[in-house]
Amino acid sequence: MDVKGKSVVITGGASGLGAGTAALFVEQGAKVAVFDRNLELAEAIAKSLGCLAVQCDVADEVSVEAALDKATTVNGAPRIFINCAGIDIIGRIATRGGGPQPLEALSQQIAVNLTGTFNICRLGADRVRQLERLDAEDQGVIVNVASAAGLDGPKGQTAYGATKAAVIGMTLPMARDLAAYGVRVVTIAPGVFNTPLAAQVLRGDPEEFDTGTLFPKRAGKPAEFAAMALHICKNSMLNGEVIRLDGGLRAI
Ligand SMILES: NC(=O)c1ccc[n+]([C@@H]2O[C@H](COP(=O)([O-])OP(=O)(O)OC[C@H]3O[C@@H](n4cnc5c(N)ncnc54)[C@H](O)[C@@H]3O)[C@@H](O)[C@H]2O)c1
To answer: What is the fold, at CATH topology level, of the domain defined by 7-245?
Structure first.
């Protein structure tokens, strides 16, 4: 799908991978709506890029419906959804010093990473399903964001990894469900990327961190993630697949 002139929703677009993707898609002529829980940050990014900021909690049905309405009014009905909103609460499931990990560590991450992703996908896809068909193969594209943690099982990431494994698990059945409507679904599983979230999880500057990549020996850049998201939109043969983007990292 050519992104030029298309209405594109980028969740978590106020920061990190989402903000990098918003920048590239605006550059490519897409009409971007940044959906983020953090309105202040979303507005600052939107102002700098020349796109739309919408306050949205991806886990909340009313909030997502209202945000989709706003994006539709301003940019036209969205056909592309890049779902970057996510949180990472690290911690081992039980430790000598700390006892069991609080149950909220799991429930909070399920709410954003799993429920939030599912919520945007179901509400967004149902709207695409009802649109007049484009004179093109692709009618819509969904790009979800998992993590290498959802495939490799690194320590301290039991809860986070479970939510990301769930996003990976949704990919193929969702692509099958939406095939009849010409909507493709692809998941990116990033390794370590230089974002505020990675800095918080790794407790430091991702530029300085040994990322465990084979090559290049550095954290990924949001622009490199964005380039993958753009390629997925453009390449109609990518569907129902999970793509690692990690410089050969295997997270332990
Ligand atoms: N950075 C990495 O190394 C890395 C690696 C693997 C996977 N990921 C995944 O990539 C995605 C983006 O991560 P990032 O590093 O850019 O993080 P980030 O913290 O820089 O950005 C995430 C954005 O999501 C927003 N957000 C959080 N909860 C939300 C909610 N309920 N509704 C709407 N917006 C919400 C935040 O406000 C923030 O702007 C996440 O899903 C993360 O798990 C990141």
So the answer is: Rossmann fold (3.40.50)
